[in-house]
């Protein structure tokens, strides 16, 4: 029984490590498009940007980013994304997870910042 418990804990730890390592940044990009789409009772923020999209998740066939209104940081990310778009700020950093949970063909956004500020 202890072996099964240890194995279960190890599997849980490994799944956490793989989720954390899947996150990466797009740095010093310019947001070229952003919009909101209604999906049932949720809203989805979509963001497109100029700059290298190397390392984008294979599921992100549209090569854009998305976050659902079910995410706790959604409202703040909408505000920053639209502000960065209007300003055409070229110092935008976007933290993403290499997954497409919020929208099936767009990479999941985790965070966004603009200007010169460390994470």
Automatic annotation (TrEMBL):
It comes from the Bacteria. Keywords: Signal. Residues 1-22 form the signal peptide. This is Uncharacterized protein. It comes from Shewanella nanhaiensis.
């Amino acid at each position: 029984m202890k072996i099964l418990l240890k194995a279960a804990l190890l599997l849980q730890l490994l799944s956490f490590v793989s989720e954390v390592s899947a996150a990466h940044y797009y740095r010093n990009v310019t947001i070229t498009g952003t919009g909101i789409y209604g999906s049932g009772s949720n809203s989805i923020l979509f963001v497109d940007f100029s700059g290298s999209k190397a390392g984008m998740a294979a599921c992100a066939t549209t090569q854009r980013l998305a976050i659902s209104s079910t995410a706790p940081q959604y409202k703040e990310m909408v505000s920053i994304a639209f502000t960065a778009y209007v300003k055409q700020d070229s110092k935008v950093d976007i933290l993403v997870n290499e997954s497409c949970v919020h929208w099936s063909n767009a990479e999941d956004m985790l965070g966004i910042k603009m200007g010169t500020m460390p994470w």
